[in-house]
Amino acid sequence: MVDNNGHWTGGDVVLIQTGDAVDRGPNSLEIIQDLVRLQKEAARAHGQVIAMVGNHEAMNLTGDLRYVSAADYAGYADRRSAVRREDVYNSNKTAIEMAYRQKDPQMSGDAIKKVWFEAFPLGRIEHQIAWSDHGTIGRWVVKNPVVVLLDGTLFVHGGISPAYANLTVTEINVRAAAALTARNTDPTAIINDDQGPLWYRGLAQPLASNNGETLAAPTPAQIQPAGEDQLDALLSAYGARRIVVGHTPILSGIALFHDGKLICIDTGISAVYGGTVSYLDIVDGTPVPHAVARSQQPSKQGAP
Fold it and tell me: Which domains occur in the chain, in start order?
């Protein structure tokens, strides 16, 4: 799809990235910039790059930054970051000190500033600006779809549960866009709901290990796929032949269940997971999984 310089060579092909291009490693800004550039280059060649929303994009938009690393923040920093951070601290010093002293009344001003600076490594403020309502990334994510139906294949990051199967693709995307725009943190909002399309694992549920904990990186044999009746009802509701999901990493490679009606494509390609570098090709309606040697890939974690 791209040449050695990262430029689009896919012609009129459609490339779909199913979300979670950010978090758990560095370079999220570069990855997003690459996707935005490829969208433009593909369009000029009569192709298309569709960047979907995953739960981690939604988390970044709503301020849940627990998986953003200091190295990732550093990618957003510029030559004014140190001055900008100092200015933000000084402008909010009274409120910041009050907040910290509610937890520890004995904290000195110097101690508070040190801890706050550690919590706000260089680049974090720029990250927040970029992901804000008016930021370039924030506006871009809001415009991206949560569900895509293309040539009989339904794409979604997590899955579509029975609770949402009565909604059309358009209705799901409209609701999600509204919640993303509002930065809605309500647990029942479509972008946060564990039954919602960004979080639902019911189509590909990892089995529990012997100690009762859910497996973090299951093999295909350790996945409990949705029953075929549930899948058939879901696919019929959307006029689809198959559904492609991410969200649950299966490090050994792309997994097909129920004769390909359910395809799990998250193979942990990020260096953080160290899984199989892979992609799914759908040619003339036939899905073909591919695995690629990691040494042939760029170093960017999470890159499509």
Answer: 14-68+131-296 (3.60.21.10), 78-121 (no CATH)
